[in-house]
Amino acid sequence: MKDSTVVDLSAIRTTCQNCGLYQLCLPMGLEEGDMDRLDKVIKRRRKIEKGDHLYRMRDAFNTVYAIRSGSVKTYTSIENGAEQVTGFHLPGELLGLNAVSTKFHTDSAVALETASVCEIPFDRLEDLTREIPSMQHHMLHVMSEEIQSDHCQLMMIAKMPAEARLARFLLSLSMHFGNRGFSATEFNLSMSRNDIANLLGLAVETVSRLFSHFQDEGLLTVERKHIVIHDIDGLMDVTTKCPSQPLPNKKSSD
Amino acid sequence: MKDSTVVDLSAIRTTCQNCGLYQLCLPMGLEEGDMDRLDKVIKRRRKIEKGDHLYRMRDAFNTVYAIRSGSVKTYTSIENGAEQVTGFHLPGELLGLNAVSTKFHTDSAVALETASVCEIPFDRLEDLTREIPSMQHHMLHVMSEEIQSDHCQLMMIAKMPAEARLARFLLSLSMHFGNRGFSATEFNLSMSRNDIANLLGLAVETVSRLFSHFQDEGLLTVERKHIVIHDIDGLMDVTTKCPSQPLPNKKSSD
DNA sequence: CGAAGCGTTGAGTGCTTTCAATAGTTGTGG
DNA sequence: CCACAACTATTGAAAGCACTCAACGCTTCG
Hints:
CATH class of the largest domain in chain A: Mainly Beta
CATH superfamily of the largest domain in chain A: Jelly Rolls
CATH topology of the largest domain in chain A: Jelly Rolls
Radius of gyration of chain A: 20 Å
Oligomer: homodimer
Strand content of chain A: 15-25%
Number of domains of chain A: 2
Order of helices and strands of chain A: HHEEEEEEEEHHHEHHEEH
Largest sheet of chain A: 4 strands, antiparallel
Largest interface: A-B, 52 and 50 residues
């Protein structure tokens, strides 16, 4: 790679092979030939600005998106205009697959900050799955992971008090950043308090109050969007202090 | 036109072709040859009694289940033993697919009453998806439907008051029965109040009170497990009492 | 600079939960 | 067959957590 001047970067083809994230959005152990085939299908690096939509609810579904940078919020909305945030998505995640059954999107995806994504035409991807077995497996993998994540979310909203929900949310974010090589204890929240509250099934005021609480207790420092976690274990304690859950189960195999 | 080969009627086992539910658990428009192949893979009619588990969390994942009769509850449990019911499943539904990513089950499935299921070895099924494209599509379809359903559930628990949640739950059940040719206004609840409460993120007492409340208002009659819905529109009004949400789609057979 | 939007904080209300007691149901063993 | 235990369901009363309403400070941006 020549690192000369500002020359046409566009000439340097960004491929999955030199994308640091491909381990996240592609199946493991893809052979080079397969990756080439995939590369031919993918439209790379579409850049989107904060507030831009990747897709909207009821749009025809024909593209899957892989996040390269930035962060994206997915949400479903109701006729009344009420919104339900279903998740925040970071680089390496694949978006849009949940629309397979309907042929149109059932949620919307909007950039929370400037972001870049790869676009993958779904019909082409589906063709590829027949040639690359692990690709098919991977799509199922991605979807089943979303299901698990949703179940987790359900359990959280259904059973955990507000305190624990926010703590869990922050820990989850921390872990994601950590896994991507960023600091797990200091990061910026790209989403608004409103979005957080919505995702967690809380009122904005409650989220705000909880941030203050956590700060008062020395668990973290929060200033606007900037978060510094001082006591991860303390936050974890908060997540486990749900009313209806007494003893830490050892390892009895049910 | 292919005319079907002569078969020995006396030797007819239960096949997908003569199962009244195959439209629900199999992809549409499967050719006869394909169905035969599928038939060879499926172990039919395993009978399970109330309380028996189809699979448990952490079990190795190697089988997908199609419900033929009865009803099944799926739930996940957290490290400490707390349970979260993730759904009730009726004949025609496919269970277990959400474990694809982990190779072991992340939820448990237990019969709420005597039931019979078909077992489909997943590795064989995965092989078949390469030979039968629509089969692959169908599996994605099933999973993306589950994701949508989970999102719906999330929205419900996050945003709707208790009243609306139970009303919506009953309407959903009603619709499912209706779609399967049973009465949409009179049926039995195979699950306990506890299970309902758990699914809806409520306390058992709240569910009980709401049943009484609905009965007082003449919306339905409930006696133990037996439900008669008198005023479907009235129930729908209840679900829209909150700032948002759902109109259960009629005629979508999921 | 002023308007608009986001975020924080306070006070009061209310929906749901928890606690508690009573019935109805199921199952088991004498 | 009945008795007793265990479980499920219903109902009441009181308490609590999170929400709504409301005001204010801070930030962003035209």
